[in-house]
Structures are given as structure tokens and as C-alpha cells.
Amino acid sequence: MLRAARQLMQRDLLLALRRRSDALMPLAFFLVTATLFPLAIGPDTRLLRSVAPGIVWVAALLSSLLGLQRLFADDHADGSLEQLLLSPQPLEVLVLAKVFAHWLTSGLPLLVLAPLVALQYGLEPEAMGVLWLGLLLGTPVLSLLGSIGAGLALGARGGSVLVALMLMPLYIPLLVLGSSAVVAASDGTGSAPHLMLLGALLAGSLAAAPWATAAALRIAHE
Amino acid sequence: MNQPYYSTANGARRRLTVFTFASPRNFYHLAGRLIPWFAALGVLTGLAGLAIGMLVAPTDFQQGDAYRIIFVHVPAAWMSMLIYMAMAGWAGFGLAYRTGVSSIMASALAPTGALFTFLALWTGALWGKPTWGAWWVWDARLTSELILLFLYLGYMGLHASISDPRRADRAAAVLALVGAVNIPIIYFSVYWWNTLHQGPSVTLGKAPTMAPAMLAAMLLMVAAFWCYGIAIALRRARCIVLERHGSAAWLRRRMK
Amino acid sequence: MGLTCQQLTCRRGRSTLFAGVSFALQAGDALWVQGRNGSGKTTLLRSLCGLALPDRGAVHWEGKPILASRAHYHSRLLHIGHADGLKPDLLAWENLALGGLPGERCSREAALQALDEIGLKAEAQRPVRLLSQGQRKRVALARLLLAPARPLWILDEPLAALDQASAAQVGQIMQAHCARGGMLVLTTHQDPALPGARQLHLGVPC
Predict the structure, then answer these.
(1) What is the secondary structure of chain A as a DSSP string?
(2) Low-confidence spans in chain C with pLDDT less than 70
(3) A184 to chain B: nearest residue by CA?
(4) Based on the structure, what is the number of domains in chain A?
């Protein structure tokens, strides 16, 4: 079972390597979006520093939503998703493998870019650290919950917009916890409870999301 | 043991089980008989509730007459929440037992739930203006209502985007269940967000301490919304059954 | 034992695609499903795989319903559908090694050998998106050579887009499979050249 999961991950990573632009575009989107806000709001450093956590999280969320199309749509179109459904291994494990590979190519690079954006907004090092930790815990949740949306939207007409509409309410706890952790760190009130709750969200999504996604994939093939 | 029986149109006797009304034909007939009762009850309780709420209940000394909007706002908000849970329940039943009618019931409830949510938001704004001077305050309850509206819209959007009706039912059912599981988490995080960021707690306004007349009006309005919700959802479900099974023999016989 | 199908009924929208389909396959049996376009052949095959759920009826493998013993059934099944299941950006041999049989490892050498046997030795190192449709079909069918241990093959239009020589070769592979004691269900518009194959006609009013 683990061998099959590893094989699937290998395949997805190889594909991402061959089509680098598919994986890099959402990251470029993240950078561009994060740059739009200072242009719209004005270069007041104090204001930017206070809105930075929210903006970074929203930009991360949006870029993750855009990158979700890659997860299942191509496999569905060429028939390899159907073969996954016919595999003797539990579908939930295979879904986890795919989501992990997706996170490696979409969430992990965000962790590299986020400090750069934080510098743009003038965040202090401590706040930046909490932001980074929050993203470390939160980007896998983005991928996990996103896989549910991507699975449900297979064979539906709406595309990215539909996936975004479905997933936005589910992302809100993540957004609230992630950005308030940074605010708490800047205030000095301590971000530990926020980060721990983020960890709980991650644990919960790891346990529950693959089931929902597997159900969605089976329904899409009926 | 004496099993309950019912008679079918051609005189045969069948056992009554949990799944009796999972057949579109039985459901269609049952719904047809229930709708007038619920509709009438809804109108009666609604009129009574509004009459008591607007005319009989005393003026609140803090908020004046503006508080009377709660007789619409609170029942709408409660019902929007209840309907989502009912929707998720029907969706789960439909997924587990593959009964099409359960999923039809879920998709029939969604627009009504969304409407109640929208109503709750509007009346919330109307209440906020005289009490706080602003059309919208980022109150934890109002914000949660807004997110609930998004959950409904997501459900309806997904359902509308899939062409095959049975697959649409099942996919939307999964979404409804995922949403239902997430609702406590969302409510908690919105409450957390609200208490963290605001200095003085901004709440929409406490409902005034309930005089008996106010309580009576409130309960009557809740009953009215509930009956209306059931009646309209059953009616919508009947329409969906007509759409999907329109060529079935039993329907054609009725239409003749 | 083997594959049994009882009273399978499938509806699509308001019309019934097929109703009351029943058969039983033993080791060495082949079933050729025929019917006009739109008569539900693909739906029948997908129901046999467990991908689509029938409105009525049940499919059993070795006496147990397939939905109850999914993992076991899938380990004995090889399905090649309309879509070839190949990733366009991977090389032909990579497709077989990394995704040929989900859950089973296939080494590079085995993949290259399978491609060699099916006559695509030169194309093994090319990305699939550069291959012609017939060549892609043959890469997908190379999976048949990797799966001698799977007794049940369910193939949807395996001979489509193939030239005569390739079609004959695939026919021989299928014959050898049945001779080994395997079971085969296939749909095709051409004659699969399987002597002794039972025929099932869908869409014929009974």
C-alpha cells in the first residue's frame, strides 16, 4: 500500500517537473496579488504592517485555489483517475499521496516566498516567524480541503470559480486563525493557542478530508 | 406483530416501512396531501405572530419600536440554521441508502434555506441601523449568517453545475455533509475573530428581556417559518419529482 | 464461480439502457458484448468493474458481491477503457512503469520488454503526446502483457484505432489469456477473432 502511494507521488512529482509552468504560475500569482495591495492602499508602513498577515493569508488562499485544477482534472481527462479507482489499494491513501505531492509543489514553495512578501510589508522578524509557522501548518490544510472541492467539481461546468465558491466558507477558520496568530505575536499576547488550533485543524483535515475526497471521486465516475 | 399497512391505488396492501416514501410515487402523493395543511398552519401562525408582535407586544424602553424586527430576524436566522442541518441530514440519508427522493428533498430545501439566510441578513441590517447607526456591523452572529449564505450558494452552485441530476444530487450531498461538519468550526472561529479584534464587544443588540407577549409572538413566528419552510420545500420537491419522472406511467395517468 | 451477473439494469435519464442482463463466466470464457452505439456497452462494462452502480441487479465475483469485496476484486481485474489512461508528458515506458497497473510495481526492464513485445520498441523512449492514436492504444494495451496474474480482463473497444497487424496481435494475446484460464469481457465493433466467445447483444428487444 505504501509502495503504491510512493509510486503515485513519484509520478505526480515527475509530471510537475515536466510541466514546470503549471506549478509555478500560482506562485507567481501569489507574488503579484500580494504586491497589488500596497499599490491600492498606499505605502504607509504602519498600515501595511497591520494588514500584512491578512493579505498574505488571502493571497496564499487564492493562489492555492487556482492551483487546485492540477490535482484531478488532468487525470480525469486522460483516464488515469479511473485506473486509480480500480486499484486494490484504498482510494483514501492514494488521494493522500496525490495531495501530498500537490502540496510539495504548491504549498512548500509558498513557504519560501512568504518571507519575501513579509519583508515587502515590513513585518518584524518575530511576526514573520509566526506567519511562517502558520503557513507551514495551514498550507497542507488548504491542499486537503481543496482536494474535496476539486473532486466534487470534476465533471461540473463551473471550473475554478465553482471550486472557489465551494471552498471559501471552509477556508475561513484557517484564515482567521492564521492571521490572528500573527497579530497576537505582534501584540505580545502569544500566538501559541492559535498555532495549536491550526495544528488541530491540520490533524482533523488529515483524518477526514481523504474520505470526503474519495467519495467525491467515486461519485464523479458513476 | 401487527405491521402497519397502507393501500395502493390499485387496491393492493403494502407494509409501511421507513423506505415506503422513498418511492417517488408515494412521496408525490404524501407531499400533495401534506402541503395544504402546512401552508394553512403557516399562514395562521404567521398572521397571529405578526399581529401580536407588531400590535400587542409592549414597546421596549431601550430600543423603542425598532426592536420589533426581531420577530422576523430571529426566526429567519434559526430556520436558516435548522434547514441546513435538515438538508445535510437528508443528503446523508440519500448517500447512505441511495434513495433518490432523499436527495431531492435536500435540494428542495436549499433555496428556502438560502432565502431565510438572506432575510436574516437584511433584517439584521435593518435592526442595526437604528440601534448602532450602521447598516452592517461585523457582529459574530451576522458574519456567521453571511458565511452560511455562502455555504448554501456553494451547494446550489455545485448542484446546478452538474448535468446528470442523480450525480448532481450525490455530489452536492457530499458538500452539504462537509459543510455541516465544518459549521461548528466556522462559528467558533468567527466568534474567536470577533472577540479578538474588537475592543468593546460589538453585538447586534441583545434581544430585550422577553415579556410574555413577545415570547408568544416569537414562538408563533418560529412556527410560521417552520411550516412555510416545510410546505414550500415539499412543493418544490414535488416539482422536481415531476421533472425527473415525468414519463412514468403513474404520473401520466394522473395528468390525464 | 468466476464472474456472475444477475438481472443487471441500468437507466440513463428517463430511458432504460439495458435491463435483465445475466450471465456467468468461468475460467477460459470470453464474452463479446455487442450493440449499436449508445446501447449501453460501456455502461455495462463499467458496472461490471464496479465503477458505475446499476439501478437493479448485482455482480458477483467468486460468489461475493463486488461492492463488498472491492479491494480483492480489483486485484483480480484489469480494465482498459476508452480513455487510454496515459499521461501525455511521460515517456511510454514511464507510463507503464509508474502507472501501468495501479498498485503494482513494474520495473523499467519489464516495461521496455512489454513495449518491445507489442512492437513499440522504438517508441518506448518517446513522450506519449508525440505518438499517434493507434500507438497510444498499443501502449495502453501493453498493460495486458504486464498482467498475466490477473484473471479477469474487461476491455472496452481494445481494437479501435489499430491497424490489422496490431489487431491480430492483440487478438492473439487475448486468446492466450483465455487459454491460460483467464476470463475476458470485451466490446468491439470488429470481429475479435475469438473462437468460442459467447455473444451478448444489447439493445435487442426481447
Answers:
(1) -HHHHHHHHHHHHHHHHHTHHHHHHHHHHHHHHHHHHHHHH---HHHHHHHHHHHHHHHHHHHHHHHTHHHHHHHHHHTHHHHHHT-SS-HHHHHHHHHHHHHHHHHHHHHHHHHHHHHHHT--HHHHHHHHHHHHHHHHHHHHHHHHHHHHTTT-S-THHHHHHHHHHHHHHHHHHHHHHHHHHHHTS-SHHHHHHHHHHHHHHHHHHHHHHHHHHHHHT-
(2) 100-103, 148, 204-206
(3) B196
(4) 1
